[in-house]
Specification:
By secondary structure, the chain is mainly beta. The chain has three helices and nine strands, in the order αααβββββββββ. It has a six-stranded antiparallel β-sheet, with no helix packed on it. The chain has a three-stranded antiparallel β-sheet with strand order 6-5-8, with no helix packed on it.
């Protein structure tokens, strides 16, 4: 099995991966992150990946490092009044099985997910299937801000 994994012919189940880790005297989390430099990663504010769409009134910063094996991404978003992160016809941006959790830090936003609308206010938190078509809108006359965590979906073999 190990030689098949090494050749990229198969992906181990969690049970098999745990046995491989034990055989190498590693924790499973260490085995899954062998390509990383250490157990602690810091992203300083000036190092954050920034983006968005000024025309739509959307800005964001990715707060986590973009490392191989990273299974979740934390980002901070701001929406100008009456703006959106995307459009209703935008395709899903996340891989199959991905989940997203967002918490409103300031203002009110509306999640549009798979054609349904969900109004969220300051402090509200939502979790949804991120592989569905979705975007956030700010329906108010004030700026809005939210944090989002996208957890990775199913790995492709």
């Amino acid at each position: 099995m190990l030689s098949q994994v090494e050749r990229g012919e198969t992906s181990p189940t969690l049970t098999v991966a745990a046995r491989i880790a034990a055989g190498l005297d590693l924790r499973l989390s260490q085995l899954l992150r062998l390509d990383e430099g250490g157990s602690v990663t810091i992203v300083r504010k000036p190092q954050r990946q920034r983006g968005g769409n000024a025309r739509r009134g959307h800005r964001f910063e990715v707060l986590t490092a973009g490392q191989p094996g990273q299974r979740a991404e934390l980002s901070c978003h701001t929406l100008a009044p009456h703006s959106a992160t995307g459009a209703a016809d935008d395709p899903p941006m996340h891989e199959p099985g991905s989940r997203e959790t967002a918490v409103v830090e300031r203002g009110s936003i509306e999640l549009v997910c798979d054609g349904q609308r969900y109004l969220l206010h300051d402090g509200d938190c939502v979790t949804f299937d991120a592989d569905l078509p979705h975007h956030f809108e700010n329906p108010t006359d004030d700026d809005a801000a939210f944090l989002a965590v996208v957890s990775a979906g199913l790995r492709r073999s």
